[in-house]
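Worked example (supplementary).
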Amino acid sequence: LTSDILDGPWTIAAEAALSRVGEEMVILHLGSGTYFGLDPLGTRIWKALQEKGELRLLCREIGREFGQADDVVAEDVRAFLRDLSEHQLIVPA
Amino acid sequence: VDELSVKLKELLPGWTIGREMAQAHPAQGLQSLWEDGAGLAISRDGSDLLLRFDNLLSFAINAGDQAIRLRPLGPYPDMPTIEHLLFDQLVPRLRSHLGELVVHAAAVAHQEGVILLLGPSGRGKSTLSASLEHLGCVLLGDDAVVLHCGEHSVAAAALYPSLRLLPDSIMAIFGGEQETRSTAQYTIKRRIDRTASNVAPRQCAALFVLTEPNRRSKSTSVHPLAPAQACIEMIRESFALDPCDTHRAAQRLRLASRAAELIPAFALDYPRDYGSLGEVGRTVLAAAEGIY
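After joint prediction of all chains, the assembly is encoded as:
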């Protein structure tokens, strides 16, 4: 069995600094200098990560709001998590 | 050094500049911090930060003593080169280190606000800002701009009134009838002196991020940028003395976030040919005027 990136658990990297800019968020990795812009949806996922929220539940909520199938949303969220992980903005808890 | 001191006092009040002998500081013992891959290397030497520019010159900076010392790496480069390295490279980084947001941008004053043209070297900041003078703008500076965030607006001030252009740009914009002098011994860019009366901060009206030159660009286009994207662009084009200093990186993020919320920002894509400069300038002004 392979673990699903959605199940984590993930924690925000200590080197991730974030700043709200209007409706969006900018995250800076203080070590590498990498910047990441989050749209309102990305900001919502980031908040769930901060609050150790249940990401599968969030995928279902987003799916309902946007009229998308859960598995389609889940795949997008997985890609987003992979991106954050590759940039070391989130690390395994 | 006396000549440099006078200008340095204007840009960094309280700071002094002096010289030191190269042999007094052997290279071993330096802690390498960062290199930009284009000739700039930053190291720590005890309580000094050392900025080395290729094999031309090093500056030892002691923030506690507010002192800059020239550390030669061989024969001193010529005076324009020292001035360029000090005022165009080091001082913007030092101002950032001291807590200000300093971005790599040209600035022109137009009607009720400053228009910023943001981008790395080679994007066309100087050429476009010089051409905007012909459309009634006042050129404030072409390279380093200090941004101060207020409650409802951002004030912008060029670090000093600089303008440096390649000979073909000078020919295209000024018709060659322009007094120029050397910028530095390693570039063919020429410096055009401007009066020092335009350095007071003025309210910022719009920020244009100059996109990478694209041969396929046949016309000028302007697209609004989301504040988060503008923030990222400002941080990317901000000066930093020690890019490894995480405390100051976080501070730049806070300042750029605030500035990005207050300044309307646009991406500007345009053909890089001199014949189009008038049209590009008019498009920039029209976009900026739409904001007022």
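Two points are worth noting when inspecting this output. The first helix of chain A runs from residue 40 to 50. The first strand of chain A starts at residue 10 and ends at 12.
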